[in-house]
Design a protein that fits this description.
By secondary structure, the chain is mainly β. The protein has no helices and 11 strands.
Length: 124
Amino acid sequence: QVRLAEYGGGSVQAGGSLRLSCTGTRNHVGNYCFAWFRQAPGKEREGVASLGTDGSSIYASPVKGRFTMAEDNAKPALLLQMNSLKPEDTAMYYCARGPRFDDCNLFEGAYNVWGQGTQVTVSS
């Protein structure tokens, strides 16, 4: 059974950077859709970035140009590099895997395996 775990969350000032890591991906990257989601207090969970089996990425508008999702070639893991962080990026961040290998997107319903999340807090 696939178990995903997120690491790397923390507190940072606005303008700073954090790198999140999602482990438990084994050799599934390239075979399934993966994505990062986040949920801020009082808000619905939203897609942040997805990685398709062809290596293509999709980013939500609020993070485009600041966040980068990539595979960690040194170990089986997925990374989310977050730069120029803003207070509105404060949320619990989740890694997710879908059952499909195509049509990778940012819709929550497209993913059925989730990690426990890691908290990111950005102060102004």
